[in-house]
Design a protein that fits this description.
121 residues, mainly alpha, 0% strand, flat
């Protein structure tokens, strides 16, 4: 009987505890709100000297068109100049043996021939 009374007395104590989670404060949110409240923006007058006033760009000058005499003089100078040739450099890709050269007609006949396929074992 004593044991039953001890159990009955213990049950109300066990049920008295709350199963609801303890409300926790969000420390990051609290810190953010604290810093947000403490922020004091600078006055707008301090930024007045940081900007420049806008001015439209000046109009471009029109190009000069040479007259016919100036153009004729430039063409004569160009015709009188001697072209400078680069030093001849022959590479192996540019050298073609004349005995192995194939004409266009021979090449077309070669292309028209049927292809011989070797049988694979």
């Amino acid at each position: 009987m004593f044991a039953r009374r001890a159990l009955q007395a213990a049950r109300p104590l066990a049920r008295a505890f709350s199963s609801a989670p303890v409300a926790r404060k969000d420390f990051v949110q609290e810190l953010y709100l604290k810093e947000l409240r403490a922020y004091k923006p600078k006055p707008a007058a301090a930024t007045a000297g940081a900007t420049k006033s806008y001015s439209t760009p000046s109009a471009p000058k029109t190009p000069e068109v040479p007259d016919a005499a100036a153009l004729a003089k430039e063409l004569e100078a160009y015709d009188a100049s001697v072209p400078v040739a680069d030093s001849p450099s022959t590479s192996t890709a540019e050298v073609v043996d004349e005995s192995e050269a194939v004409g266009a007609d021979d090449y077309l006949k070669l292309c028209e021939e049927p292809v011989k396929v070797e049988a694979k074992h």
